[in-house]
Amino acid sequence: MLCPPTNLQNETLEFYLTTESTENISFILGVSNQSYVLSMGDNVTVKATPVSPWVKLFKWDKEDSILVTADSRDNSDTVCSILALQNAKCPVYADEAEVRAGGTQFQTFTSRAGMVARRENFPDGVHIIVVPLPDDDPCTLAFSERANHTSRQKSVILQVYNHATIASTWYVFLLTAGAMATVISSFTALSIRMIRRNLTSETVAVEDEDERSLLGESGHSGTHGRIRVEEMAGVSVLSGGEVGGTMSEGSRREGVSQERPFVSASLSDGHLSRNVSNEPYGRLQIDNGSRDLQPLPYAVPSTYAPHHAVLNFSASFNPRLVCWWKRLAVYELRTADAQVAEIGFQNNVLIMAVFTALPTTELVRSYLKLLLYHGQEDQCFFNSRCLTAFGTLPDFARVFTNIGYLLCGAAFIIIVKEHKKFTENILRQYGANNSVGVSRHYGLFMSVGYGLFIQGVMSSLYHTCPNSVTIRFDMMFMYVVAVAAVVSMWGFRHGDVTHHVYPTMVMVGMILLMAEAREWVSQAAFWTVLSLCYVFLMVTNTILLTKYGVWSFSPYKMLMVWKGWRPVAEKLRNELWGSATTAKPLQIVRIVIGLVVNSAIILFGCLADPNIYSYILMVCLINMGLYFLNYVIAKICERESVRALPSIALGISLILWILALAAFFFHSTDSEASPSMSRAKNSPCEFFGVFDTHDAWHLMSALALFTFFVGILTLDDDLCHTRSDKIHVF
């Protein structure tokens, strides 16, 4: 008996048999005493039904923790059942209602299950209970998928294994952390050393010291943007009378002041001499001849200014003659607004992380409470056959291996800062009229580093209790990192692109909101609407790339494209079928490849009906990879060299990505399925007795992303001494 009275020597058994048969029934009753104790290492096959559950007892010896596994056999892996653990005291809860009421630790399963029992939670021993359920709804979570079983008998093989604890495996975690820190710090140090060598300042002959001093600090900081060199000159003669005011940017370009009137004279057939007389009656000398300006009737203070300079007039500074040089470096990229926008995006990433982590922490804490205090293991989808608990973390290994993202994020931020410092040093050696190198948006690269670090935090929170709800938070910063990386690459050769980030992130957010509709509408309706939106975005940006050479998810810009569809259609036709097509084969080929790949993605979504959040992430990552390949191929076609560091980093990244994806596709859990279906994929630990393939994915994907982003950051270091106006745009 499971719960015999204390000190009972003799047992009296009474059997009652009833039948509705009108005839006598013959039967044989056999009674035997079988031990229900399950020992370490033994495997026992039990057969149970909803009305006759099976109970086994495990008694503690020297173990502090055990792993109890259950595997279905005899084609009973479709029968939904409960595996429950209870402290070896009476009464024994042997039906579904009692098991769910409390006092046990339980989980549903169909093909396999696994639970960890610790001596501190089960001091008197462990009752192992198998209870088949009347139907399969708790396992499938779909009433429409009920199976019409003629038999609800469940045949299960039970086994007990010694379970490794953190006390016996702490050195594995310590060595893993040390190895990751060593690898990342070594690669970081090597990268900084190679960046220093690649970006070492060289002594350069500056053609125009006067121009460089004219522009002051703005001409030194090449990291402040891409340079456009203008072949022009002009003078502005301002009328006297008023004092104060500012030349607006529009007035400087058009030659008409909004604050105070002046007359502009463009000297297209010559250029101004550097020597402007400070005498009361000034004269300007022109290279191809002498032209005298009539002197003003009073003494005229003069000043020098670049074409786009902002001049603040006051009583102490009130020039009447403003002139600029014939060759001027004008910053197209790093305006103050652009720098503020990048810093704002960095701050927004951090703010978003805080306000995402806080509710996620509370949500995970509530799930853990149900798991730890009420025994409901269906709340979290662990790989129950590879668990190492630490404190209140049931699966410490999955949380721990996110250390790779944290270390890689911090290391990448350091590399970005060092790269920025060396770039500024080398560009200080050049004048504003001969600035060099591509435009780098260090603010966006910093955001990528922040995103890597925050991804490690969010992934740790997710793996504290993984399920179909918390996985949404795990993916969130993957979108952010992908978008920031694409915009950063685009910005190398397209000036100020910070304005791309916000519309793109808003578009991704709107699509994620739309994804919630998948739970409320039919598959056909959802994918039809989503595909139409996808096609709209794809065609609109194809037109933008064809006509303007840019892309944008700004609603206003996309609306403008379709408002003027007739000239755009004509332009597109000329680009695709006109004589100019062969002049830009790379641009046409990359657009066609993008259309084909994204059309295939749309078709895959409609036919396979994948998880929508994973699908959106796949779209972001595939398009990031496409643009990266396009950039590398275009760079090769332009016969630009690639330095050793990006080659090494991207080569290592490729190898790591192959290994990481191989580990990723060996799923040991499935957060999008039901708990029992997820457990059907559980597998033992493959590495050092504590890590499984998903842990390997964490470590290798972090390193792969890190080296990939280092490769992107340094990809154009070969152009660090190339004049900006000589760098091809693609």
From TrEMBL:
The keyword Transcription regulation does not apply. Residues 240-260 are annotated as: Disordered. Keywords: Glycoprotein, Membrane, Signal, Transmembrane, Transmembrane helix. The chain crosses the membrane at residues 170-192, 442-463, 475-492, 501-518, 524-550, 588-606, 612-633, 645-666, 696-715. It comes from the Eukaryota. It is a multi-pass membrane protein. This is SID-1-like protein. One of its GO terms (cellular component) is plasma membrane. It is found in: Membrane. InterPro entries: SID1_TM_fam. Belongs to the SID1 family. The keyword Repeat does not apply. It comes from Penaeus vannamei. One of its GO terms (molecular function) is RNA transmembrane transporter activity. It holds the Pfam family SID-1_RNA_chan.
